[in-house]
Amino acid sequence: MSNKEIKSRYHILHVEVQHGSDRFDIHLHLERPPIVRDLMDEVEKKARVTAMNQQLIFRGQRLHQTPDKELEKFGIFNGNHVMLIGDKLSGPEDDHFRRLLSIEKDVKLIDDVLELLCRDFENIKQSQQTRNQCDHILSDLQSRTERCQTDLKTFASIAKNLNVDRSEQDASRKKKEVVELIEDRINISTNIISAISSY
Questions:
Q1: Residue 88: which residues within 8 A CB-CB, separation 6 or more?
Q2: S-S: 28 plus which of 34, 90, 139, 154, CB 3.0-4.6 Å?
Q3: DSSP of 79-116, one letter per residue?
Q4: Which of 142, 152, 143, 146 is nearest to 185 (CA)?
């Protein structure tokens, strides 16, 4: 794939977000134009100011008020500076939130692997080979999917056992999001295993 093809396929945006005296480099690489919500999600990870507590301001425009709007519609391009207003998490809640962000990141990596496994399986189905002709490949796909599922179950156990106090509202919300994400991906992996087994 040439540089020109990469540029036409991916939308790449690098901005600096200033939060008090802190500065954060935010890099967005997407297959669609980035929206405000994408920026807010990255800011949440880097600055640990939760999306619901963020006020993002660019040249007097309040980005956070329209989270589904494309960033380029605000005139935001590479190298621009965005101001962040909002309280950073602290103490045990910050520790829990960071741990959950780390789990979420690992789960998203597994999600990418599951997507590739699905694509490989679809390619096998489209090639119309018999089970005997591709038994070795199918066995490998199933084994890799089972490893992903085992890892997901481990992450689910870690997330569920994370002792987040009810007063830690942002960490509680993130825990719920992460557990739901993991359970969804466990279901997907179960469906992939079932489809491979019955091919």
A1: 19, 47, 48, 49, 94
A2: 34
A3: T-EEEEESPPP-HHHHHHHHHHHHHHHHHHHHHHHHHH
A4: 152
CA 163, chain centre distance (Å) = 23
Strand partners, 46: none
Distance CA 84, CA 69 (A): 17
Q: Does residue 118 sit in helix, strand or coil?
A: helix
Say what the pTM is.
Answer: 0.78
Q: What is the mean pLDDT of each run of 10 residues along the chain (199 residues)?
A: 54 94 94 95 92 94 96 95 94 93 95 94 84 85 96 97 93 95 97 91
Residue 188: Cβ within 10 Å count: 19
* Look-up of token digits 């999917």: 145
Cα angle 141, 143, 144 (rounded to 5 degrees) comes to: 65
Look-up of token digits 């990418």: 112
Domains along the chain with CATH numbers: 9-85 (3.10.20.90), 91-197 (1.20.58.120)
The 3-state DSSP composition of the chain as helix, strand, coil percent (nearest 5) reads 60, 15, 25
